[in-house]
Amino acid sequence: MEYKEYESFNLEQLRKKDTHFSPKPPFQHQVEAFKKLSSTFKVDSKEPRSGLLVLPTGAGKTFTAVKWSCDHVIPKNIKILWLAPSFYLLDQAFSTFCENARDISHSKKTLNLRRVSSNPSHANASSIKITDDIVIMTIQTAISNLHPNNQDGSGNKVETAFRKFIEDSKETGLFVIVDEAHHSPAYGCRNLLIGEKGLRELVPNSNILGLTATPTYTDKARRGWLRKIFEDGDNGVIYQADKETLITQDILARPNYIEVSTGTEMEVDDKLYDRLVKQHKDLPESIIEILAKDKHRNNFIVNSYVSKKDTYGKTIIFADRWFQCEHIKNKLVEKGIKADAIYSRIDADPGSADARNKRKSDDNKRILDDFKSNKLDVLINVRMLTEGVDVPNVQTVFITRQTTSSILMTQMIGRALRGKKAGGSSDEANVILFFDDWKRLIDWVNPVDGDPEPDPVKPDKGENYPLEYISIRLIEELSKSIENNEVHPIEYKKIFPIGWYKTVIVYADSDNNNDSMEAFTEFVMVYEHTQSRFEAFISSITDPKLLDEWSKEYLDDKWMQPQVEEWIDNYFNDETDDIGRRLNSDLIKIVRHIAQDDLHSKPPYHSFEEREIYDLDKIAHELINFSNPELNNYVKQEFSKAGMLWETFYKTPNRLLTALQLVINKIMTDGDGDGNEIPKHNKSTSTSTPPEDDRYPTEEEREQVKNRDGYACLCCGVKAEGKLQIDHIKPFSMGGKTFVENLQTLCVICNRRKGRNEIDFRQNKTKLSRPKTDLGIPKNLDLSFTLESEKATRTLTRIVNLFYHCKAVYKVDWEVYTYTYNIYLYPNNKPEWLLKHKAELLKFVQEKLGRQAYKIEVTTKK
Q1: Who's near 582: CB < 8 A, 6+ residues apart?
Q2: What is the CA radius of gyration of the chain?
Q3: 6-241: in CATH 3.30.1510.10
Q4: Rounded to two decimals, what is the model's pTM?
Q5: Which of 133, 139, 479, 627 is the most buried (most CB within 10 A)?
């Protein structure tokens, strides 16, 4: 049933209207909670009490608090102020009170309820009356209306309607219920509750009940504030139900989180990035509209259900727009799925007659009843089922877009977490999380974060590392390198963090349509070159006045920026340290964490102990001689290894393969003359005079060398432009100078095999005084060339030239009829040196090159 922003019930008429009403029976853990609440809160006495009711998501926190209040608080005419950090939560509490109103003691004749926030679907704070029995409002609205500085036309201070309600409750009594109470230590909320001018100060005998699924914090400061606000029970906890016990008892289902990529790419400009990351607001309506209208994306969601309908079973799909609901419904029906959609008249665009006509007043009730009675398999809705509606037998929920709101995420997931005894259909609940490809790192809610936290000092392997931060950073750098033809080099030691700070900050969003306050857990990546700078910066954050200002939940970005820019100037290098353009927001996170911490402690730091395992710079050195097929095989094996994080970091094997190839190329292009390519250098130097210390040839010199060498590798003869590099004949590390006469053109592979040797491939006569003891064929010789037919001849040419340390090969012929390779050497290169290794060379040709050769002949050019 849809309720208005204000409801006034004649309870006597309500009871007469439905004489067959049977109240919802509580579970055993709720009965136990009722007893604990009754023994703690002596509402008849003037002694104020406070404590936490701790129940896991889906275990009925709202129902338990409402039911107990209806039995023990409302009949005594004590006013109830229900506070929640987000307007999403107001509707659930409001509807639960309305549904349980008829079960209130007969001593109570009427009941007036009002839900208040800045959201247009709720009442304005100015509408609050002292005759209201229950006011359900957001924490932010309560803060702004308790002690405003508003003045009337005569300059007199205005007393708000909310303040009048509080003043009146001094006579009646006040019972405060705080939903998501683990946010209570936040600056604004704790001052609202127990501050010098807070509710407890204004109404000394008021009681405070906190509802939460996560009663503790890992840091002492926030635990301390919870203990100050909630004083009764065991460390502030009046009653706590164990999640695993409720799962064992079939009251809760175990969530099975399944992430599904839509493949939709979404650009993130600076304005959107600031909104999502710095201001911690959810997606703007304009972006939600784009996603909702994307037919390809909606069809993908439809097909995701159809392809696994037997697994997903009875499913709720959370959408964002009425037309999205209709599209998904129609497509499902076309595919033989029994589906329908519900949404409010507000969601159906009040400016559109077509939309309004689609939603008759009784449609939602009829459709919901059909879903409950199993006449429908799928129910699509726009936020209507986040409100605690009783929907049994749901096996799966589809969450069709990402959100930054942990509260909204929890509300949606909660629809599927009922165990069999609570109306669920199985032991496991499927939670399908659709995600898009956002081009910048956004701190989307991860529903697993709602589970109890592990040891904060040493997280379980992989599970609690901020892996997505690392992954997106790596992929960003990989994309830059590819887009810029490898001119943008990747230095993994600079982009792979050595650890991170974990911050927990409460933010307030004062948008007119999204009155909320939420805590966000976020990470600040620390790199080798930034670690000491962060430490120095954090040590400087000690000014009490500064910390007091920065502790507030809402801070204007324009107010923060000058101070942040000053910190960057004093402690960081914005050119090298602003990795991923996050330094500005990272400093804000650290300062706000310290400021909101009661002890002003720095955020906990975690070392990335497994970092060395994923250091591509080191791995590439080990794989530098791998052929392309061998490199491919290595990547496939790494991706399939249990416990490895390659897939988490790079998403696909091809990305890891590309990254490895880029690093291998970088090793060769950034080498020190030890068989490696020489980077380009923009200088003006004569080609005939060697510079004193400069190892980098100019573009003009590079072109001159390639032109002289016929744009071909002097060792093997390949002319593939992408494989050609400029090499020092006498390595730079051996004192070789950078001028044209000491430079030669080699391909990537020959340059790599030349290594730290002084070999001039412009010379046709070996300078070796005696033969080498082996052919020097590497175990993992790269056999890849542009033309497959040239593979054998090019490879043989390379091996022989490297064997003689010069361009000894005149040519290599293949005799088809005799299956013979004929190797012709330039004069003054002794064939007998190579003939000693003929058997080894023939075996290599047969086994490695895959050629059906019977003989190898070596002679001197005539």
Answers
A1: 277, 441, 525
A2: 36
A3: no
A4: 0.60
A5: 139
